[in-house]
Specification:
two-stranded antiparallel ribbon; two-stranded antiparallel sheet; 9 helices; 6 strands; elongated
Length: 343
């Protein structure tokens, strides 16, 4: 036997003994039938026969070892792909998938960029990493306080323990109420911006805030009508609202705005003008297509003979009837109610 062959035998024995001592398995996995893999979908198909004896003896351990070997084969295939480093992490570029896996739903579409993200992409602005600490040193309290959270609010309350008052012993301004109002205003502004981004992504036109455009008012008459309606939509019908310089009420909308003053009608000068006005009013009513009475309305028919007989019977009955006397007639003692008499 050559020395080289003997050395190989020794090395193989040493390797096998080291593997028996080390619980970790080797990255090289041997299979009778090669495992089919699709790295694009991270899929491994094992067509080898199952060892029923090992499965029945220890089912959980057998399934774990089988899964580990197949996953190791898939990872070995991934490490054969070209890799790149992205932010202290090594990533492999997966190829196009070969198998088409069925899906219950469609793939989620990428979210549209917001207005700021689109601007940052065009200008090449990259987001900065947050390297700031969660704690901040406060010179007034002489201690470390968090930059956000309920502890931050408690620290602010400790700092604002003094409230300014006027000569009448009244608080000039509540700082907590002012801070709360400012927070609500910021929340409303952020919500408005979020809705604008959604409308922009779905190509929905929204009205602009500020001066009106031609899209909203095509005519100066429409603009004057909108101004008049807005001014008279208060509880006082615009009585205490300030007017713009040279502002006049729009024409033809007095009927649409309740409570708005209308121009009084001119009193007719003579009887002929009054007759003419009444005649025009009657003609205007008769020209309309609206029906005053319904044709399908049925009135119950009454037979006059039956009506006369009913009246005669009723009158005869009433004529022969006598007025009842209050307790002057004979009483039946059997029907008398017993018991104590009420007073």
């Amino acid at each position: 036997m050559n020395t080289v062959d003997s050395m190989d035998i020794v090395n193989s024995i040493l390797e096998s003994s080291n593997q028996e001592k080390d619980p970790r398995k080797s990255t090289e996995v041997h299979k009778e039938v090669e495992v089919e893999t699709d790295v694009g979908t991270l899929l491994a198909l094992d067509y080898n026969t199952i060892n029923l004896k090992s499965l029945r003896s220890d089912q959980e351990e057998y399934l774990k070892s089988l899964t580990r070997d197949n996953v190791q084969i898939l990872i070995n295939k991934i490490w054969e792909l070209p890799t790149q480093r992205v932010e202290e992490a090594i990533m492999a570029k997966l190829p196009k998938p070969e198998f088409v896996l069925p899906r219950a739903r469609q793939l989620p579409k990428p979210k549209p960029l917001t207005k700021w993200q689109q601007f940052a992409k065009e200008k090449g602005i990259k987001p900065k990493k947050k390297t700031k600490s969660k704690l901040k040193w406060d010179e007034e309290l002489q201690k470390w306080i968090p930059t956000f959270g309920y502890k931050r609010n408690k620290a602010e309350e400790q700092k604002k323990w003094l409230v300014e008052m006027n000569d009448q012993n009244k608080v000039m301004e509540d700082p907590f109420a002012a801070a709360k109002a400012a927070k609500e205003e910021r929340k409303a502004k952020n919500e408005l911006q979020r809705l604008r981004n959604i409308a922009k992504a779905k190509n929905i036109k929204i009205p602009r805030v500020g001066l009106p455009t031609k899209e909203q008012f095509h005519d100066s008459q429409q603009l004057s009508q909108a101004i008049t309606i807005a001014r008279t939509s208060t509880a006082s019908v615009g009585k205490f609202q300030d007017r713009l310089p040279k502002e006049k009420d729009a024409k033809g909308i007095a009927k649409q705005v309740p409570g708005m003053k209308r121009k009084p009608e001119v009193v007719p000068a003579n009887i002929h003008e009054e007759k003419k006005r009444n005649k025009d009013l009657a003609e205007n009513i008769l020209k309309r297509n609206t029906k005053v009475f319904r044709k399908d309305f049925s009135v119950p028919k009454i037979n006059p003979e039956k009506l006369e007989t009913k009246k005669s019977k009723k009158g005869a009955k009433n004529k022969g009837a006598k007025k009842p006397k209050g307790g002057r007639g004979q009483k039946d003692m059997r029907l008398k109610a017993r018991g104590r008499k009420r007073r």
